[in-house]
């Protein structure tokens, strides 16, 4: 007889909180693409990255002071520094630059190599497992990302240089995530995010002159979008990402980000009035289906129930012992 064992509520709660944090991250990162499109018309890639990171540092710094977080332990600084350099700094500048050189579809195609690199690097450097469900889900989601990218291609010019920039962004994204994972075992999610954002802002300081010059001429809407990028998709979303990453594998978290293209299509439809085609909608559905598969878990199935014989009653035991005594005496 087979039975399915349900984990107790106390063990499900951390998993549900991590899933909720990952959902917040994905939704806010999807909204970032809409804001970048608006802010990018008035700000150059480096200036936009610096303004976004400075807004994020101020927000995270205030929260750290209120919570009295303090400095991360020394053992966490290596991962924080590497993730801050690659992901918060280099990635944001190169991605902004790449999206000015290629159309949105090509950028989405190339950057979505990142989750695959995260899974491979996580398995190689962190010893993360690559279960069949994760690999299958990533394959389905990547097919969806390719479909979305192909359906959106042709909206602008593409160049080999732009493709290289987007590929570099994907590599930096993957390297930053894998470097961040060990740091989360030694410092809190808020500490890792705050000081990673600070490292990224320091890396982008050479763009200070551009930021000051462009902010003087930029419309208020573009500047507000830049601040929004720093407060929500950076400060809040990177913190919820770190919280979820600390409680699962890098590969599984990377696969979760495949929901971003589907949400970008939906938000562009609702906010910008860009009606997606059937091919784009189909690709978005594939992205979400792949995420669902990669995040699913096998149900724990108990083995066959063991039949235990009932203990003999005391009277039966006494009667058997009596019979043995009689047999012994007659012999």
From TrEMBL:
User: Member of which family?
Assistant: Belongs to the EamA transporter family.
TM ranges are 42-65, 77-98, 104-127, 134-153, 159-178, 190-208, 228-246, 253-272, 278-296
**From which organism does this entry originate?**
Streptomyces lancefieldiae
A Pfam family this chain is assigned to: EamA
Renumbered residue ranges of the record's region Disordered: 302-331
Q: Which UniProt keywords apply?
A: Membrane, Transmembrane, Transmembrane helix
Q: Give the matching InterPro entries.
A: Alkyne_AA_exporter (IPR052756), EamA_dom (IPR000620), EmrE-like (IPR037185)
| Compositional bias ranges of the Basic and acidic residues kind | 311-323
The protein here is known as DMT family transporter
The segment(s) forming the EamA domain are: 21-148, 161-293
